[in-house]
Design brief:
By secondary structure, the protein is of the alpha+beta class. It has helices at 32-39, 120-127, 141-148, 155-159, 170-180, 193-212, and strands at 13-17, 27-29, 44-50, 53-58, 67-72, 77-80, 90-96, 103-108, 114-118, 255-259, 262-266. It is built from six helices and eleven strands. A five-stranded mixed sheet has the order 2-9-5-4-3. Helix 3 crosses helix 6 (193-212) and helix 5 packs across helix 6 (193-212). The radius of gyration is 21 Å and the shape is globular. The chain binds a DNA duplex through helix 5.
Length: 285
DNA sequence: CGTTCAACCTGGGCGC
DNA sequence: TGCGCCCAGGTTGAAC
């Protein structure tokens, strides 16, 4: 998404529109009238990604400090230079005086996304290390181990915590643990160093692979790149969305269950619980 | 500290 | 065809 909108860098804003949402408008800060005025005539100095968030950076000028429009697409939000899937649900239209890139849209069907114009301190508070852990595309086993080795949380739930590691969502948490061969239900403190090695490697591998396939475009969240290409990573999913279908590695049927109010998919044969260290009573069968 | 639940929304899919 | 449910790449805060 970030790379797809990089062509707006250097362009100057000619207009900002916030079309009325159907029911409730998406969360925009500051309120629309002020946001529009704050953005008028600004030049885009850069586009950045912090975990799942995109930050469009605007130069400072005589009256205004350097600021960042931080966009959280959440479930169905997309940044588009091309056409929106529907005319409804266009939330923000940034117009540029450019033939090549006349506009950048934030489209969000469900409207759960947010957009906030922040100064340096606000950016730090929203996207700094207190809110976001190391990026999942480059996370190391040591990063994960120092944050989670004493945690009692189930490893899949912990991987979804953006303060632990930034950028892993529900699809990729399942895919990462599948590749790593780790049971999503296991408490973090039960995992070994070798487990963390495999999880960190799987995180980097799965996300790099997903990015190169331009994401997963499935039913609800039909992701499109900013220039309207659909992702294809859904065709490479090991477990996500594959309930009752055979595991590609062993043929066992993929299981779906709910964990922290989110669907979890895993192969119960390839992703086993580690044996408890505590001695168990002998079974007398 | 960890888990569960509700809330914020729209719309596709499914069973009846 | 219509209706009611369940489900969905997310985050937050309250309650237990």
């Amino acid at each position: 998404m970030r790379r797809g909108i990089a062509s707006v860098v250097g362009l100057r804003l000619a207009s900002t529109e916030l079309p009325r949402g159907t029911n409730r408008p998406i969360l925009v800060r500051p309120r629309p009238a002020i946001l529009v005025r704050s953005l008028a005539g600004r030049r885009v100095a850069g586009v950045h990604r912090f975990g799942k968030r995109i930050a469009i950076e605007f130069d400072d000028d005589e009256t205004r400090p350097r600021q960042w429009l931080v966009i959280e697409p959440r479930m169905t939000g997309m940044l588009l230079i091309g056409r929106p899937p529907t005319d409804a649900h266009v939330r923000i239209v940034l117009g540029f005086a450019s033939r090549k890139v006349p506009r950048l849209l934030f489209w969000d069907r469900r409207g759960l996304g947010t957009a906030r114009l922040l100064d340096e301190a606000g950016l730090q508070a929203a996207c700094g290390p207190t809110k976001l852990g190391p990026d999942a595309l480059g996370v190391s086993a040591a990063d994960l181990q120092t944050r989670l080795s004493r945690s009692r949380r189930a490893v899949k739930v912990a991987l979804l915590d953006q303060r632990v590691v930034a950028g892993i969502g529900n699809i990729y948490a399942a895919e990462i643990l599948s590749l790593a061969g780790v049971d999503p239900r296991v408490a973090c403190r039960r995992l070994s160093g070798a487990d963390w090695d495999r999880i960190a490697l799987a995180s980097r591998t799965i996300l790099a692979d997903a990015v190169s396939h331009e994401g997963s475009s499935l039913g609800d969240a039909t992701y499109q790149t900013p220039d309207n290409r659909f992702g294809s990573f859904q065709d490479h999913h090991r477990v996500y969305g594959r309930e009752n279908q055979p595991c590609h590695d062993c043929g066992t049927l993929v299981v779906r269950f709910v964990q922290a109010q989110r669907a979890t998919f895993f192969c119960p044969a390839c992703q086993w619980r580690p044996r408890r260290r505590r001695v168990r009573l002998q079974q007398t069968d």
